[in-house]
Design goal:
94 residues; 1 helix; signal; 3-stranded antiparallel sheet; mainly beta; elongated; 7 strands; two-stranded antiparallel ribbon
């Protein structure tokens, strides 16, 4: 009984890994993007599905990698058009 309890505690305390070993072979777990490129578990991306845009994270669900919606809309590093700098910078002294 003690050995089973220790094994259970060790399994819980062990770091989570996206890869699994089945029959002595390593099975890699990851998501793919629309071009088929590998996306690691935990990475986030912007998805466009059925006219909707949202942030999603690659996660495991019942031993299957899947995309889970995190929030509506997508993060962007671009400034909105109304905040874009003027193209004509004649008033700037270099």
């Amino acid at each position: 009984m003690t050995a089973i309890l220790l094994a259970l505690l060790a399994a819980i305390a062990a770091p989570a890994s996206a890869d699994a070993t089945i029959g002595g072979k390593t099975v890699e777990c990851y998501c793919t993007d629309k071009s088929g490129a590998r996306v690691e578990i935990g990475e986030m991306t912007c998805l466009h599905v059925d006219g909707k845009t949202f942030m999603a994270q690659c996660q495991m669900s019942l031993n299957v990698p899947m995309w889970r919606k995190i929030s509506d809309g997508c993060l962007s590093s671009a400034l909105p058009e109304r905040l874009q700098p003027a193209i004509d910078a004649r008033g700037v002294d270099s």
